[in-house]
Amino acid sequence: MKKIAVLTSGGDAPAMNAAIRAITLSCNYHQLQCVGFYHGYNGLIDDQYVEMEHFDVNPTLQQGGTILKSARCQAMLTSEGVIQACNTLRKHEIDALIVIGGDGSLRGLQAIKQHWEKQVIGLPGTIDNDLSGTDCTIGFATAVTTATHAIDKIRDTANAFERIFIVEVMGRHSGHIAFNVGIATGAEAIISFENFSADRALQKVTELLKAIDKQQHTHGSFLIVLAENLWPGGAQALKESLTEQGKVDSAICILGHIQRGGSPVPEDRNLGTELGLAAVDAIITGQDNVMIGREAGKVIATPLEQVINTAKPVSAHWVNAHQQQLTHYLK
Ligand code: F6P
Questions:
Q1: What is the dihedral of CA 115, 2, 35, 39, to 10 degrees?
Q2: Which atom, in ligand 1's list, is nearest to the CA of 172?
Q3: Are 201 and 240 in contact (CB under 8 A)?
Q4: Nearest to 144 by CA among 126, 132, 131, 165
Q5: pLDDT 10s digit of each residue in the chain, 331 long?
Q6: Which of 13, 190, 193, 280 is deepest in the core (most CB within 10 A)?
Q7: Which reactions are catalysed by this chain (predicted)?
Q8: Residues 20, 54: contact at Cβ < 8 Å?
Q9: b/e per residue, 23-32, with b = 16+ CB within 10 A?
Q10: What is the ipTM, given to two decimal places?
């Protein structure tokens, strides 16, 4: 009987559990043995092994987080760590390894492939949506929904006080969350990697002040969605620049890890389920060294090498859609 291992790695994402559940149930259906490793690659290095039939995976669809736990693993950046992980796979006679995670986790999987002769399959699990080879990553839709609902609430109080808010959203180094959330909430400004560079900070503040001035003569609140890891000095520095250059007061809200938690939206549960089932099918049909994703409604397999080395930009259409809205304020 073939033995398939699964782990979740890096930043957890809503509906990782849906993928784990689908993998477990599909292995059961195909009479394959399914096992898990806890705490991402750390569990592989330290041999934190669990037989998946001991899990009752059925009630986990609606749970955020990951029942296998997750972690970032510095040891996987060293060849000793990778070799130790491969030794654990050999010790348990694993035939195929499925890793659910983001960019760094898939790089770890590729490193394993260089020292281990069996099959490796990646699944895109990250709220950031910054992986090519899939239109959406598992967890992205939920993160966008959570941030949208939070910002809608901020908008209510911003409207009541006719206030300016800077809301920082996650996304690591990409603007998929910033643009999708900013457009969904009608943010007056979205500042993200795709439309901003640090050397334009001064100019950006001037633009914002003009737009704020125009907006406040009309109907009050002004919402700036700011991508994390972008503005030099962060949201606080932007707030201070607005005050210094324009005598404009603003409030800051950093949404942070609430974007990673919560019950996954149906879209994510179904994506996790579809890709989990497809990962087991891929193993059965002998695929190797690929990530399974969904593009234009179809499940596809993309070589890990390609996924890791190809950026997935935010669509120019989205960036322009927002730019047109901002231009309106600058007229
Ligand atoms: O990759 C997911 C993510 O939530 C990013 O959006 C964010 O930059 C990062 O993880 C935060 O990581 P940590 O929880 O380790 O601080």
A1: 20
A2: 8
A3: no
A4: 126
A5: 899 999 999 999 999 999 999 999 999 999 999 999 999 999 999 999 999 976 778 889 999 999 999 999 999 999 999 999 999 999 999 999 999 999 999 999 999 999 999 999 999 999 999 999 999 999 999 999 999 999 999 999 999 999 999 999 999 999 999 999 999 999 999 999 999 999 999 999 999 999 999 876 666 899 999 999 999 999 999 999 999 999 999 999 999 999 999 999 999 999 999 999 999 999 999 999 999 999 999 999 999 999 999 999 999 988 887 777 665 555 5
A6: 13
A7: beta-D-fructose 6-phosphate + ATP = beta-D-fructose 1,6-bisphosphate + ADP + H(+)
A8: no
A9: bbbbbeeeeb
A10: 0.99
Question: Tokens 């041999």 map to which residue?
Answer: 47
Instruction: Write out the two tokens for 86.
Output: 């491969």
CA–centroid distance, residue 259 to ligand 1 (Å):
10
Nearest CA to ligand 1 atom 1: 11
Pairwise CA distance, residues 280 & 275, whole Å: 9
Nearest protein Cα to ligand 1, atom 15: 11
Report CA-CA distances (Å) from 11 to 70, 84, 100, 103, 283. Answer: 7, 22, 10, 10, 25
Report which protein residue has its CA nearest ligand 1's atom 2: 11
